[in-house]
Write a structure and sequence with these properties.
Blueprint lengths: L2 H14 L21 H15 L10 H4 L2 H14 L1
Helix pairs in contact: 1-2, 1-4
């Protein structure tokens, strides 16, 4: 597990899934299957922008970038490389 993945997973577990401790969150867990609602997504995007000092643009807000922790990590990696 990379540091980026760990930070993303920790945030999702602590801030979004805090009431669902029984959910096993892996790098490939599908986040759209009722695990995260629109408010959770907004909180996640805000966290990512602050934590990694990046800007998530409107064009980035596609399911392929946010389906799993692995997809989010890939987006963050691309953003950090481009900076």
């Amino acid at each position: 597990m990379t540091d980026v993945e760990s930070r993303i997973r920790d945030f999702i577990r602590e801030e979004i899934l805090f009431r669902r401790r029984s959910v096993v969150l892996t790098a490939d867990t599908e986040l759209g299957n009722g695990l995260m609602d629109s408010l959770g997504m907004a909180r996640l995007i805000s966290f990512l922008e602050q934590e990694f000092d990046i800007e998530i643009e409107h064009a980035d807000l596609v399911p392929a970038n946010f389906s799993t922790v692995r997809d989010i990590e890939a987006l963050i990696s691309r953003k950090l490389e481009a900076a």
